[in-house]
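lol forgot to send this yesterday, sorry. struct tokens for the thing we talked abt
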């Protein structure tokens, strides 16, 4: 009587709708048709040459844009770091041993994600890395680790000179060390307690940068040795102006 004379919700129908919604969500996750920059920024490193599971999907920046962005970022770093705070392993043999320690860490199946102050297991990313502390103006009186990169941007901007297997292993090591560097720097007052809460908002800033500058990164002349340097420097200046307009401090910009 009650069931026939009063409006009611069908529990079975509701469960079916909920099941359908869950299944659609799973299918989207499996197909990876839309991966936000938030998750892209938290990917762990793995073997592969410019490869991710999502590299063919439209929501991910093109390889050309990513190469251009890397070149611009490496140029912009020169505005914050001098020869003591930014070193390249290929021109500074003293960093080679610390890189080998990190390679051993990687070969022991240790993980490095995400590139923030606290990793996915609730701990800080510090193992397998040894640092030389430096002082730079952007961090005032705070000592931060020296930033070590494998090569200068001329090398990183030219994929033709890479040996894909050998260099992937080296680049993975470099990425892990960058993760660790970000972990240390993320625990400083300038970042951890900074005005823009960068530990939470970094993916949004990265997404904003790619939305604003993806075409610039994609079309930039990467050959600094053949007249492209002014082009690279001009885009780097635009990026820094953009970050300043977004009210990021110098430490947050770095």
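and heres what i got for the seq, position by position
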């Amino acid at each position: 009587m009650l069931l026939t004379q009063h409006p009611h919700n069908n529990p079975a129908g509701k469960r079916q709708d909920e099941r359908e919604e869950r299944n659609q969500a799973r299918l989207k996750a499996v197909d990876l048709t839309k991966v936000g920059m938030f998750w892209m920024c938290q990917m762990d490193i793995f073997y592969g040459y410019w490869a991710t599971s999502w590299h063919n999907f439209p929501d991910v920046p093109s390889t050309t844009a990513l190469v251009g962005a890397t070149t611009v970022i490496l140029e912009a770093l020169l505005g914050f770091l001098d020869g003591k705070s930014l070193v390249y392993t290929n021109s500074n043999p003293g960093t080679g041993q610390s890189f080998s320690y990190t390679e051993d860490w990687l070969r022991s199946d240790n993980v490095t994600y995400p590139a923030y102050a606290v990793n996915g297991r609730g701990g800080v990313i510090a193992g397998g890395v040894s640092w030389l502390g430096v002082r730079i103006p952007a961090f005032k009186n705070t000592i931060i680790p020296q930033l070590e990169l494998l090569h200068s941007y001329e090398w990183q901007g030219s994929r033709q000179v890479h040996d894909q297997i050998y260099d992937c292993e080296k680049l993975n090591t470099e990425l892990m060390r960058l993760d660790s560097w970000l972990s240390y720097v993320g625990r400083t007052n300038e970042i951890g307690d900074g005005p823009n809460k960068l530990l939470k908002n970094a993916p949004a800033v990265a997404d904003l940068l790619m939305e604003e500058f993806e075409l610039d990164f994609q079309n930039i002349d990467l050959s600094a040795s053949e007249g492209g340097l002014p082009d690279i420097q001009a885009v780097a200046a635009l990026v820094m102006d953009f970050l300043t307009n977004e009210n990021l401090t110098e430490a947050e910009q770095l």
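The chain has two domains: 10-36, 38-253. anyway ping me if u want another try
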